[in-house]
Every structure is written in C-alpha cells, then in structure tokens.
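Following the same procedure, the fold was encoded as tokens, giving this record:
***
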Amino acid sequence: MGSDLTAETFQEAYRALFASFAEAQENSECVECVACKGCEKCTFCSASSGLISCHFCEDCEGCTECQHCSASAWLVGCQHCKQSQRCSFSSYLVLCASLSRCNYCFGCVGLANADYHILNQPYERRDYFRILADLAPALAGLRGGRDGFAATPSGAKGKRRAARGTARATSAKASTKAKMPPKANALPVPEPKANTRANALPVPEPKANTKAKTSPLREPKARTKAKTSPLREPKARTKAKASPVREPKARTKAVREPKARRSKTTTPRTP
C-alpha cells in the first residue's frame, strides 16, 4: 500500500479507520459508569461517550478531566459546567462556548479570565444570579455539541432531557400555586366555641394562713466562767556544778649534759 497510495485509497482507508474508532463502545478502567461508551478511567458517569478521566459527568461527549458537568461537549479541566462546549479550565458555565479560565458565565463566547458575565457583558454578582435564576429554566432544552447548540434534541437522550424539563416546569407551577393567597370565596374558618358550662366548678381560693407559727425564743445561755488553770510555779534553777579547775602542769625541760669531746690523737707517720 506504500507505493500504490493515492488520494482515493487514502480517503477510503481514513474513513474506515475513523469508523472503527467511532464504533468502539467498550469502556476501559471505569468504575460505576452507566450507559457510557468509549470512556477511559472515569468514575460515576452516565449517558456519556468518549470521556477521559472524568467524574460524576452526565450526558457529555469528548470531555477530559472534568467533574460534575452535564449536557456538554469537548471540555477540558472544567467543573460544574452545563450546556457548554469547547471550554477549558473553567467553572460554573451555562450555555458558553470557547471560554478559557472563566467562572460564573452565562451565554458567553470566546472570553478569557472573566467572572460574572452574561452575553460577554460584566454584571454584579447579585444581578448575575437573579438573571440566571429567571432564564436558565426556560433554556434547559439546549445542549452544547460539536455542531453548536441544538434547540430540539432527538433520540433517547433528548427524551430524557425533555422529561426532566417538564418535571421541573410542573414542580415550579405547583410551588407557585402553593405560594398564592386563597381566593375570596373560600369558606371562613370557624372559630372555636367558648366553654359556657354552668356546672363548671369554681376554682377554690387559697386560704389565708392566719395562724402564724411563733417559734419560742431561746434565752441565751449564761456564760460560765472560764476554767482557770492553776499557775505553775517556776522551778528553782539549781546551781550549775562547778567543774574543778585543773592546774596547768609545769613543763620541765630535761637539761642534757654536754657530751665530752673526744680529743683527736694524731699518729705519727713513719717514713
């Protein structure tokens, strides 16, 4: 095939290769992934395809290292994004495309390092969340994909999204009805009847305690004289025994007699 490669053979081989890759439905090293195909190293994802190292994603396509994203496609390193496509390293995006390092954006395209933007215009934090709460439920049917935002989803995923949208709408209507005040022709609530029984026993009044118990006063006891302890006479001090005074001994030095000196006798030398 090397020397015989032409434009026609190249196109046929490329189409076959692309089709074989697109038909791959087995997941690799995934944990608790439901209704997913072609995913690798993902955990707790559902109804997604072509995910790599994603966690808790739903109805996504071709995302890499994303978490808690839904109805989005071709995201990289994003978190909590909805209905967005081709965004990278962003969080809390809704209906956004081609954003990089952005947070809390709604309906924005091609921004970078932006926060709290709607249609590429900056808003205050309070106004941003108020507008998002009003518009997001009405635009819940849109989904970001490789061909842009699809307004009329089809297939099993579209039916599930439509069912979720109708359920949210019915719950919103029920909550608004519960908050509405009652109509004018509503029956008045009857007041509780008062207890008018004639044979009700009167409450006895407490009797006044007229007899005051007087405790007899105790006379103070006469203080007795304190016992006087007899004084002890001081003992007579006896005279200390006088120790006899020793007389010092007379030191006598013995007089040594001088030794008699011996006279040296000279002996005559003999010649």
Observations:
- The first strand starts at residue 91 and ends at 94.
- The radius of gyration is 58 Å.
